Sequence to fold (133 residues):
Amino acid sequence: MNNILRRTLLPSLMAASLAGVTLVPAKPAAADDQVLRDAGIGAVTNVVTGAVMGHGNVVKNAVRGGVTGAAVNGANGLRKRRNRHHRNLGQDVGVGAGASTLTGIITGDRKRTLSNAVDGAAVGGAIHVLTNH
Fold:
């Protein structure tokens, strides 16, 4: 009797739990409708800081800045809806520095982790200044 229950109950229980997990998302994405604006600000800011500091590759700087801007937007999207218009400078700069450093490591730019962090902090600061209400 125990084998019969295992063979019939377990597969149906697994199928039901799998369907519940895949069909019902727990929480919507954190980024808001201004993610493209922040990614654009990040890309432009990182290209400018890369040119000023002499870091060469414009495309890599733009990609790293765009990803950093999207990360800053996503971190701001985690806040409650009424607090999204009052951004936190420390949070924006910190998330920008971390995201730019991580993106630099992923793209193979491991020699300039400190300058990537500085570029990301500049992106976070620029997004904060340009979008804070």
